[in-house]
Amino acid sequence: MEQPERPGEPEGKAPPGTAPAPEPGPAEPETAAEPAAIEPETAAEPGAVEPETAAAPVRARRRGRTALLIAGAVVLGLVAGTCTGYLVQADREPTKLPPLSQPTLKQSKGEAPEPLSAARDRHVRTDGDLRKLLLKKPRGAKDADWSSAEDGWMDLASYAEAFERPKPAFAHLVGDEFRRAAVVAWEQGQTAVEIRLVQYRQEESMAASERSNGAHYWADDDGNQSWPVPGTEEGMAYAYTKPETKPGYLPEYKARAFAWRGDIEMEIFVSSTKPVGKKTILGLAKRQMERL
Fold first, then answer.
1. 121-125: long-range contacts at Cβ-Cβ below 8 A with a sequence spacing of 24 or more?
2. pTM for this prediction
3. Are 216 and 234 in contact (CB under 8 A)?
4. For residue 261, what are the contacts with CB-CB under 8 A and spacing of at least 6?
5. Domains of the chain by range and CATH?
6. 3-state secondary structure of 34
């Protein structure tokens, strides 16, 4: 930066007190920088701790030995506890157990009660010929050739064929432990009647009552009349007021009745060209249940 001129000073002269500027000459070669002088280490002051030049090796602690010691202590504790319990139990007196045999009771004196007759023992009656418990055909009636029963019996296959869907019906009957079915059927004038006594083993469930209640479900309709069957808990009789019609056939009126007692389900089917009255269907159901 150029200095400003001072007034009163001649040009080209240096101010008093200043050295004259050197004349320009040849440039001296640059010398290499001398390395910095290394000061010698000073003696350590007394009391100062010299740093360690290398870390001393640390000896690792063995863990396996400690684990073995703990495991051995646990085993010894269990053994000691078992031995102590055994010694305590060995010093005790044995507990007396009750005798396995029951005390002998004196036989009662007097005559034993007589066994129930077949008329009073329901189990004896239903284990016999089930066909004997069916209603008898009325006088003047003839056998129904349309019935699938053979000699008054229906086996599992023939009974399943009486349903609208025989295949699933067969499977359900097997699950319900179907045993046998006694059947009687007749025709009298323009009226046809079929009565079935369906018996189940009932080792797993109360199939007779369940099947009867299921029949009530699909038999009950808006277009029918219904009445309870006397002498039964849930027995019902139904009479349909609207007939089934087919071209070329007379109108067909139907009536149904379902009830159960013990291991037997009662089914009654009536069809006629005239409406089936309450007296007809309810009378058949009442008399049949009385025979059971």
1. 122/262, 122/292, 123/262, 125/292
2. 0.58
3. yes
4. 208, 232, 289, 292
5. 140-290 (3.40.1000)
6. coil
Q: Provide the token pair at 104.
A: 């002998």
- Written as six digits, the tokens of 283 are 């009378």
Q: Identify which of 66, 148, 137, 108 has the alpha carbon closest to the alpha carbon of residue 287.
A: 137
How many C-beta neighbours within 10 Å does residue 251 have?
A: 13
Q: For every one of its 292 residues, what pLDDT tens digit does the chain have, with 9 covering 90 and above?
A: 444 444 444 444 444 444 444 444 444 444 444 444 444 444 444 444 454 444 555 555 555 677 777 777 877 887 878 887 777 777 777 787 777 776 777 777 777 777 766 666 666 667 778 999 999 999 989 988 888 888 899 999 999 999 989 999 999 999 999 999 999 999 999 999 999 999 999 888 899 999 998 888 777 776 788 999 998 988 999 999 888 898 888 999 999 999 999 999 999 999 999 999 999 999 999 999 999 8
Structure tokens at 262: 């013990």
Q: Is 144 exposed, middle or buried (0-12, 13-18, 19+ CB in 10 A)?
A: middle
Q: Which helix (H) or strand (E) is 75 found in, with range?
A: helix 64-91
Helix (H, G, I), strand (E, B) or coil at 286: helix
Q: What is the residue type of 79?
A: V
Please say whether the beta carbons of 285 and 237 come within 8 A: yes
